[in-house]
Amino acid sequence: MKLKTSLKEDIQVIYEIENSLFSVQDGRFSKKVFFYHLAKKDRLFSLWDEDKIVGYLLVLGYQKSLRVYSLAILSGYQGKGYGEYLCECAINMAREKKKDFIYLEVKSSNQKAINLYQKLGFVVCRILPHYYGSIDGLRMVKFF
Questions:
Q1: Which residues of 111-141 are buried (b: 16+ CB within 10 A; e: fewer)?
Q2: For labelling alongside 89, which of 83, 131, 140, 144 has CA 20 to 30 A away?
Q3: Strands 65-73 and 101-107, bridge-based pairing
Q4: pTM above the 0.90 mark?
Q5: In this structure, are residues 61 and 97 in contact, taking their beta carbons and an 8 Å threshold?
Q6: Longest dimension (CA), the chain
Q7: pLDDT tens for each residue of 45-74
């Protein structure tokens, strides 16, 4: 697996991954959103397994923090270490950019993701009522 800066020609596949995993209620992104972030530097990254995009990472940098805005892995590749790899890449980006912390939001019902984030040192710092439609979100943070 390898993380690469996304290119314009990657957007269709990234959008298909997004569409296959998220609903409108989840806040599913449009192609326009991906093109917007692609135009910004160091935000959108494609996860490759050999010659195929199997996931993506979208991060937003702020003065003191890095936010994992979205992270997605194709269903058939989940549970095989790809999500952990993406999280570790994001953590390394935050460290390299000398950020004080990294944070993300996750559905309170997504126990697999919560367990992964906790394993990597994230802690719940806030409950976000109805963040994903009828489902609460959790804001999780990792300090350096």
A1: eebbebbeebebeeeeeeeebbeeeebbbbb
A2: 131
A3: parallel
A4: yes
A5: yes
A6: 40
A7: 999 999 999 999 999 999 999 999 999 999
